[in-house]
Design goal:
By secondary structure, this protein is of the alpha/beta class. The protein is 42% helix and 16% strand. The chain starts with a helix and ends in a 10-residue tail after the last helix.
């Protein structure tokens, strides 16, 4: 057989892979929106036909509207004017500035830890840290909640060490796994404080108790909690007065803080070791100084802005109450996450499209593999700047479309 006859049709393979997503209703479409300063959650949707239409964003991660805060924007402008656009290098090679140091100091103070380490995203922070820890603790066994974020799963998978997966929030199963392993082996338990798809909380105290009993380190992802829980916004571990029992805390600057980047906080020695051994940190250009300046300002403001946190929780509670009054299948674990289950990827996409096309409401469908098949959903993220007008419009649209699509209104139990 000639070489030419044996060559794969690569384009056909790409077509096949993409068509598979279309057939399953899981193909993801980017919605081109333009945010206007000071107008969030209102934005402009650039429609594929070239027109521009007003929309209200109900699925953003700028939970508290800090991406529009005047002091945050002023800090970024000042840093941009003072330093220019980029950092100019990795943290080890010319990419560490006073802005990075200030931000890390703010984060260490926020969590009551000795030190903090910045990454370009919380995904990279999780991946780089969890994949590096076995280099620091040979023979390390990592115990990971089965519903941990993809970044944690990837970090655990790539580290080359032993791993154990415990059933979601099941401390009895975790205990069984810990008890079955060598008592002298180094151990780490990795879990989250708020699981973003269902909005449930991790059993922090119980896991810390097991860590003490079996001599394990603790690693918590507070990405969907920092800025929003605790008296200074340090997350659920601060709210529950448990932060001192957590060895490594992961957080983000791209959600409640409204900017960009991720980080870990821990002991000075732990941070020093991670920064010295983690390729994901060593070989990545550092955050732009303007981004670091804006994030530091946002962190500093939210340490003292309890009113904004209270308003956020109030909006989430109101939205849940009104969804529940419509009989929509809502999952409510008491957090700010508001998932409404549709249960079918095609219907979820249709609902999302109709909300956008007919009502100017933007909420992205959440499908497999982000959530298990059969639990496809619309996930709403209310903020303090979603007022009564926006809420009324959303409720009216959801009620009408739910009836139009003849979807089940039986409520799911939390």
């Amino acid at each position: 057989m000639r070489f030419e006859e044996s060559v794969l049709d690569y384009t056909a393979k790409l077509d096949e892979a993409i068509q598979k997503l279309h057939d399953e209703g899981r193909y993801r479409t980017f919605i081109d929106i333009v945010r206007a300063r000071g107008q969030f959650p209102h934005a402009t949707w650039r429609h594929p036909d070239g027109s521009e239409r007003p929309v209200t964003v109900w699925c953003g991660n700028d939970y508290l509207g800090m991406g529009q805060h005047p002091e945050v924007l002023a800090a970024m402008h000042d840093a941009l004017d003072a330093t220019g656009a980029g950092s100019g290098g990795t943290r080890n090679i010319s990419g560490t500035t006073a802005y990075h140091k200030t931000l890390e100091d703010e984060l260490a103070d926020l969590h009551g830890k000795e030190a903090a380490l910045l990454f370009t995203s919380a995904y990279i922070a999780n991946d780089a840290t969890l994949s590096t820890l076995p280099k620091l603790f040979p023979g390390l066994i990592i115990y990971s909640d089965e519903l941990n974020h993809a970044s944690m799963i990837e970090g655990v998978r790539r580290n080359g060490g032993a791993k154990r997966i415990f059933r979601h929030n099941d401390v009895n199963h975790l205990r069984e796994l810990l008890a079955a392993d060598d008592p002298n082996a180094p151990k780490l338990i990795a879990f989250e404080s708020v699981y973003s798809m269902d909005g449930d909380f991790g059993p922090i105290a119980e896991i810390c108790d097991l860590a003490d009993e079996f001599g394990a380190l603790t690693y918590i992802d507070e990405v969907h909690a920092v800025g929003m829980y605790g008296p200074r916004g340090a997350g659920v571990s601060e709210r529950d007065r448990l932060a001192h029992r957590i060895d490594i805390i992961n957080g983000t600057l791209a959600k409640a803080y409204g900017v960009m980047g991720g980080y870990i906080t821990a002991s000075a020695k732990m941070v020093d070791a991670i920064r010295s051994y983690a390729p994901g940190f060593i070989f990545t250009t550092s955050l732009a100084p303007a981004v670091a300046a804006g994030a530091a300002t946002s962190v500093r403001i939210l340490k003292h802005d309890q009113a904004r946190r209270d308003a956020h929780q109030e909006r989430a509670a109101i939205l849940k109450t009104r969804f529940r009054a419509l009989g929509l299948p809502l999952i409510d674990h008491g957090s700010h996450i508001v998932p409404v289950i549709v249960g079918d990827p095609v219907h979820t996409k249709i609902l999302s499209d109709m909300l956008l096309d007919e009502h100017g409401i933007y909420v992205q469908p959440i499908n497999f593999p982000t959530v298990p098949r059969g639990t496809e959903r619309l996930r709403f993220t209310p903020s303090p700047v979603h007022g009564p007008k926006e809420l009324d419009a959303l409720i009216k649209a959801m009620d009408a479309l739910w009836s139009h699509c003849a979807l089940n209104r039986a409520e799911l139990s939390a």
